Amino acid sequence: MPTFFVIIKIREMIKLASKGQKFKQWTAEEKYKIIKPALEFEKSTWDITKETGLSNGMINSWIKKYREEGMNGLTSKKKPGNPLVKFSSKKNLTDMEKLQYENMKLRIENERLKKGYLMKGDGSVVMFKK
Residue 117: which residues within 8 A CB-CB, separation 6 or more? Predict the structure, then answer.
């Protein structure tokens, strides 16, 4: 089999995320339903991988989290995001929201200055201080 054919086949098998793609959020109950046969030794994780199309690593990590923490281990943890997004998406901010927004921007600027960054204007130009 030619080498280029193997590379094409591998690329077809790999599913890469496209820009802006949303991933499925699994609930704890859905995760448990998927891993239950492996927990009860009815099926192997590879069998579950073939049936569901999920990666074996993901299934094994769900099993590990379930064994360590129970159902709480299967719940998705909220990841911190950009705190300024909620203000930038609104067109008309109340006075309190304007103050909160300004306060948050100043805190971010303060943290950057502690790390040795110099900012100009609105923070879009950042230079490292020597």
Answer: 126, 127, 128, 129
Render pLDDT for 71-81 as a digit per residue (tens, 0 to 9): 888 988 876 67
Q: Considering only CA atoms, which of 6, 66, 80 is closest in space to residue 36?
A: 66
pLDDT in the model for residue 65: 93
Sign of the Cα pseudo-torsion (115, 116, 119, 125, in order)? negative
- Kindly tell me the burial class for residue 6, based on how many C-beta atoms sit within 10 Å of its own C-beta (0-12, 13-18, 19 or more): exposed
pLDDT at position 25: 81
**Which residue has 């073939």 as its token pair?**
50
- pTM across the whole model: 0.51
Spell out a b/e string for 56-71, using b for 16 or more CB atoms within 10 Å of the CB, else e.
eebbeebbebbeeeee
Please state, in angstroms and rounded to a whole number, the distance separating the CA atoms of residues 54 and 61. Answer: 12
| CA–CA distance, 34 with 56 (Å, rounded to integer) | 12
